[in-house]
Design brief:
Elements lengths: L2 H8 L16 H33 L2 E6 L2 E3 L9 E2 L1 E5 L4 E5 L1 H7 L4 E4 L4 E4 L1 E6 L1 H7 L3 E2 L6 H13 L8 E6 L12 H5 L7 E5 L4 E4 L1 H4 L12 E5 L5 E7 L2 H5 L7 H17 L2 E9 L1 H13 L5 E7 L13 H8 L2 E4 L3 E9 L29 H13 L3 E6 L2 H18 L9 E4 L5 H10 L2 E4 L1 H7 L3 H9 L6 H6 L4 E3 L10 H10 L19 H7 L2 H5 L18 E4 L16 E6 L2 E5 L1
Parallel strand pairs: 1-6, 2-7, 8-15, 9-10, 10-11, 15-16, 16-18, 18-19, 19-20, 20-21, 21-22
Antiparallel strand pairs: 1-4, 2-3, 4-5, 7-23, 11-12, 12-14, 13-14, 17-18, 23-24, 24-25
C-alpha cells in the first residue's frame, strides 16, 4: 500500500470516520465494515500498484531473454555476483537478472537466446577518446610502430602508391622518435629526400608534435619566436627543422585545407564502425569543436549512430576555432547543456589543456627533464587565464576536465580547481572535476585528489607505451610518482579508464590487460613495470564501465548491468576475469548490444 493512501485514511482533514470508533452491535455489521475498509483501502492500493507497475509492463514489455551465460554486472557492491540470464525490454532496458531456470520459467513465452556458456559484460565505456580523429586516422598514412625514418618513408610511399591522387596535403599519424635508433626528432630534410613536391603533415603518436616537409613549410609565415605554450624546433642557425610542438602546430593547422561537416560525418561513422567491433558502447570525446557537434547531432537524427557520446567542448588552449570571434566558453554558457539527446549525446563538460606530452618533452615538470637539462616542458595556458576560464565553466554548470601530464601541470590544475571552487563558493565534492591523464603526481598532490574527490581519468596503455623512455625523461626517483593507478584506488580516488584513441589502439582489452599486468604484449617485464601499481581485474573492469559512467554523471543508467539501466552489453569469447593474463588481448567480442539492439556481430 502506498504511503499516500495511508495518509489519506488516517488524516483528520478528510471526512472519513476512523474504523476504530465504530461500534457494531452484531457480526453482520462487523462484516459490512470489513468490506467497507477493504473497498476504501485495498482497492485503491491495487489500482495504484497497477498504474505504477502493471502499466509499465504494458508500455515496455519484455522483448527477449539471454540465458546460459556468465554475466558480470560490474556493480560496485556486488563484485563477485554473477548471473546466468537477463531480460531486456522492447525499449532496450534491463528488466531482470537471475538464474537461467528462474528467468526461462517466468518468461517462457518470449524470444530467448542461448549464449552457450559465453561471457557477458557491460559495454565498455572509454573515458578519453577522440572519435573524429580516429575516423580521419583510418584514411591517413599509418606510421605507428615505425622503427626508423626509413620505415616512415616507406610507409608514406606505400600510401601514395595506393592512392591515385593526393589532393592537397598528405596526412600521416603515429610516428614516435623514441622508437628510432637515434631517439632524436627527425627533420624536414628526411621527408624532402623522397617527397619534395607533396605537402606532408605527420602528427606524432601523442598528437602533441608535427613533422612537416619543406614544401609545406614554405607556404607558412613562421615567426622568429616560439608561441606561448609551444616550440618551433630550430637548428643551430635558428632555421626551423620541420618539427613543431604543442601550440606551435597551430601555425600550420590554421593554414590547412578546411574540413567541412560532411567530411566530419564520414569520419565519425567510420570511427563508430571501428569502436563497436571492440565492444565499446559509450565514449567520452575529449575536445569537440562546433563542426563536430553539429555533425554528431545531425547523424543522431538521421543515421544509425551506434554509440553514446559524452562530449567535452574544446576549451582553453584547445579552443582555436574562434567561431564568429567568440570563445567556446561564452557560446556554450549561452547555449547551455545538452543532456542525453536521443539517448546518444550529452554535452556538459569542457576539455582544457595545461601542458604537453612526455614523449615530446612538453609535459610541464617542476625540475628539468633528466635527459634534457634546462628543459622543464611547456605550460599551454597562462595559469591566471586558465583560472578565470575554469571559473566560467563551473559557473555555467559545466564539468571541467583538464589534460595534465607533468607533476607541475598536475599541481597547477589541482590548485586551480581548489581556488576556483573557493572563489565561487561551490562545493568541489559535487562537481566531479577531472584530471585527464594525471600521469606524474607527487605524493602531496595525490592527497589533493583524495581530499577534493577529483577524478583521475587515466589510460593504462600510456604506461606500457611510455615505459621504454619514461624513466629516461624523469629519472629513477620521479618515475615512482608516475602512472599511480593502484595508489589512487587504495586512497579512494575514482579511476576512470580509457585509451586516448587514436593515440593508442581502440581495443579496450589492451587497456584492461595493461592495467592488470603492466606488461607489453610479450609479457615483459616478467613481473610488470613497477608492479605495485597494477590493479585487480575487477577494478580494471569498473574503470572501463561503472567508474567511467560516474565520471560522466551517468552511473544511474550506464556502466553496469542492473534492473532499469540501459541494456548496453557485450558477449565475449572467453572470461577475462579468469583466463591467463597473456591471453586477454586475444579475446574476441562476439556481439555488441546497444540499448538491447545488436550493433555488431562477429
Amino acid at each position: 500500500m502506498s504511503e499516500e493512501h495511508i495518509t489519506l485514511l488516517d488524516s483528520d482533514e478528510y471526512d472519513v470516520m476512523p474504523a476504530t470508533l465504530i461500534k457494531p452491535k452484531n457480526r453482520k455489521w462487523k462484516f459490512a465494515i470489513g468490506v467497507l475498509i477493504f473497498v476504501l483501502i485495498a482497492v485503491p492500493a491495487i489500482i495504484a500498484l497497477y498504474f505504477l507497475f502493471g502499466n509499465q509492463q504494458i508500455e515496455d514489455p519484455p522483448s527477449f531473454v539471454i540465458y546460459n551465460a556468465t554475466i558480470y554486472t560490474a556493480e560496485e557492491n556486488h563484485r563477485h555476483l554473477v548471473f546466468e540470464a537477463m531480460v531486456i525490454s522492447e525499449s532496450g532496458i534491463i528488466l531482470q537478472l537471475g538464474s537461467s531456470d528462474e528467468i526461462l520459467e517466468q518468461y517462457h513465452n518470449i524470444v530467448s537466446h542461448n549464449l552457450e556458456q559465453k561471457y557477458v559484460y557491460p559495454g565498455f565505456i572509454d573515458a578519453h577518446t577522440h572519435l573524429a580523429s580516429l575516423g580521419s586516422s583510418l584514411v591517413q598514412a599509418d606510421l605507428r610502430y615505425s622503427k626508423s625514418i626509413e620505415e616512415v618513408q616507406n610507409r608514406i610511399q606505400e600510401y601514395m602508391d595506393n592512392h591515385d591522387k593526393i589532393d592537397g596535403w598528405l596526412y600521416g599519424r603515429g610516428w614516435d622518435q623514441t622508437l628510432f635508433p637515434t631517439k632524436e626528432f627527425p627533420t624536414r630534410f628526411d621527408l624532402d629526400e623522397q617527397f619534395p613536391d607533396v605537402p606532408i603533415y605527420l602528427s606524432r603518436i601523442d598528437g602533441h608534435a608535427a613533422w612537416v616537409n619543406t614544401v609545406l613549410l614554405d607556404t607558412l609565415e613562421i615567426p622568429d619566436y616560439d608561441p606561448e605554450g609551444g616550440e618551433i624546433v630550430r637548428d643551430n642557425d635558428g632555421i626551423p627543422t620541420g618539427i613543431f610542438i604543442d601550440s606551435a602546430t597551430n601555425i600550420i593547422l590554421e593554414n590547412q585545407p578546411p574540413t567541412d561537416e560532411d567530411t566530419v560525418k564520414q569520419e565519425l561513422l567510420s570511427a563508430i564502425e571501428e569502436t563497436k567491433k571492440y565492444g565499446i558502447t559509450s565514449v567520452h570525446d575529449a575536445g569537440i569543436d562546433e563542426t563536430t557537434f553539429n555533425a554528431m547531432r545531425h547523424l543522431i537524427s538521421v543515421e544509425n549512430f551506434d554509440i553514446r557520446v559524452y562530449a567535452m567542448v574544446a576549451g582553453g588552449a584547445l579552443d582555436v576555432e574562434g567561431v564568429n570571434g567568440t570563445k567556446s566558453v561564452d557560446r556554450w554558457c549561452k547555449r547551455g547543456q545538452v543532456i542525453n539527446f536521443e539517448k546518444k549525446l550529452t554535452v556538459k563538460s569542457a576539455k582544457m589543456l595545461i601542458d604537453g606530452a612526455l614523449g615530446s618533452r612538453g609535459a610541464a615538470l617542476m625540475k628539468d627533464y633528466s635527459d634534457d637539462p634546462g628543459n622543464r616542458g611547456l605550460i599551454l595556458q597562462d595559469p591566471e587565464s586558465y583560472l578565470k576560464e575554469v571559473q566560467k565553466w563551473i559557473k555555467c554548470r559545466f564539468q571541467v576536465n583538464t589534460h595534465a601530464i607533468g607533476d607541475l601541470g598536475n599541481r597547477i590544475v589541482l590548485d586551480t580547481y581548489i581556488n576556483a571552487t573557493q572563489n565561487l563558493k561551490k562545493n568541489i565534492h559535487n562537481l566531479r572535476l577531472r584530471v585527464e591523464h594525471a600521469q606524474i603526481v607527487t605524493p602531496e598532490d595525490v592527497e589533493k585528489f583524495v581530499d577534493n574527490e577529483i577524478i583521475a581519468s587515466m589510460q593504462p596503455t600510456h604506461a606500457t607505451s611510455d615505459m621504454n623512455y619514461a624513466e629516461d625523461r624523469l629519472g629513477p626517483e620521479r618515475i615512482k610518482n608516475a602512472y599511480l593507478w593502484n595508489t589512487f584506488l587504495q586512497k579512494g580516488v575514482k579511476l576512470a579508464l580509457g585509451s586516448d584513441f587514436p593515440v593508442e589502439e581502440v581495443n579496450p582489452l589492451l587497456g584492461f590487460y595493461a592495467a592488470v599486468t603492466r606488461q607489453d604484449l610479450h609479457g615483459q617485464p616478467l613481473e610488470g613495470w613497477y608492479p605495485e601499481e597494477r590493479i585487480s581485474r575487477y577494478d580494471a573492469l569498473q574503470g572501463f564501465t561503472l567508474n567511467a559512467a560516474y565520471a560522466a554523471f551517468q552511473e544511474g543508467y550506464l556502466g553496469s548491468l542492473r534492473k532499469d539501466k540501459y541494456a548496453d552489453f557485450i558477449v565475449l569469447s572467453d572470461d577475462i576475469m579468469e583466463i591467463e593474463p597473456l591471453l586477454i588481448p586475444d579475446v574476441k567480442v562476439l556481439k555488441t548490444f546497444l540499448g538491447g539492439k545488436v550493433v555488431y556481430e562477429a
